[in-house]
Hints:
The protein is an alpha+beta fold and 434 residues long. The protein has helices at 7-18, 32-39, 47-68, 72-86, 99-114, 117-121, 127-138, 168-184, 195-213, 377-381; strands spanning 247-257, 265-270, 281-282, 289-295, 309-314, 320-322, 325-327, 330-331, 333-335, 350-351, 385-387, 393-396, 412-414, 432-433.
Amino acid sequence: MAATAAPDSSLLSLLYRSYPTVISPNATEPDYQLASSKIFPDVNFGETEHVDIKQWLNAVSGLKAALTNDDKTVLEKILVQLNTHLASHTTLLGAKPSVADIAVYALVAPIVEKWTSEERTGEKGYHHIVRHVDFVQNSPLFALQIPEEEKVVIDVTDVKFVPKPVDPKEEKERKKREKALAEAGAEKPLVVGQGKPEKAAKADAPAADAAATGHKTEKKEKKPKKEKAPKPAPAPTTPPSPSLIDLRVGHILRAINHPNADSLFVSTIDCGDVAGSDNTSVDEETGKTVRTVCSGLNGLVPLEEMQGRKIVVVCNLKPVTMRGIKSAAMVLAASPRVEEGADAHGGPVELVNPLSTPLPGWSEGVPEKQLNPKKKVWEAFQPGFTTNENLEVVFDSSAVPLVKDQEGKPATGKLVIASGAVCTVKSLKDATVR
Length: 434
């Protein structure tokens, strides 16, 4: 059960308890603006982020005033803004922790505790605020010292409505439109009947002139038909190759818990796509072209290991919607081989360290834009991706009947980075990579 003390005392108590070497128990008004750098010394906060922290602390003050004055209109407005912001951010700053997150938690947690399931996750509920409260009180990123009995009880399976994921590109365009409308003022009145009749009058002008002069209008001469160019000869078929799979280095900008599935992470990943590419959006925070990727790694890989790091992604699988969020790639990871019928997702799991070049000896093929799921290309080649005794990630063609003993191809090809170093995993030998 969350603490129900006044917001200031609740926040101070939480900070004293969690960070005793940073926040003095004798301080009655600590400098919250400077507290983030002291509480999180390993996090580098830029000037813009300090400004954002200040703005969010001001928002917390506004929220506190609305609660004190029982101003439901202002309260709802601030909560809606907070919920919308958190729809595309793990923390208030994106992925970095700050004292502003703790201040929001101290003030909002008692409110969330009193909400009904409908208010939490209904069609008009505050899904992302609920997720943020759960994240802050449990994440090692914040390491808050909160007894279990004081935490807000959140049932992640109790979801009344699955909201449409926020598209950062659409959200940015929406804000631009609203700003343009506000600057332009009211729209100019539409003159009914002005456009089309005028156009029609111009179209009828030759016929009217002909009627006035008594001359018939001449018909336009038909243009001679162009001869169709002969169809190009079909391209020669190339032997099947794992190079059909679009393996890329990806950079995870941030990752969050899936709001509607406790086994999934939702990652925002820069895969090097050109702006406007299929299945991408523009990240509002960085301006980069990114993909949203759902991966079943929650509980197998710590969330903090999914932040700001390089990974390997399969980029040409057909996108799938996973519990309401469209996933446009797959994060590659290694796990122990299991016997048939056993749980293949029991762990341990290790992310593959990134490669920058194709498979040596198998690099002649060109990745397809999107693999046809009916042909099951990835499923055919995946058994060949494995790790060896030296923890190197390799492609073993002997495990793939489609290319086994293919002339001129190596039995084993290694995944290497640009410098020539072999791509590896931490500790899993003879593991399957998928």
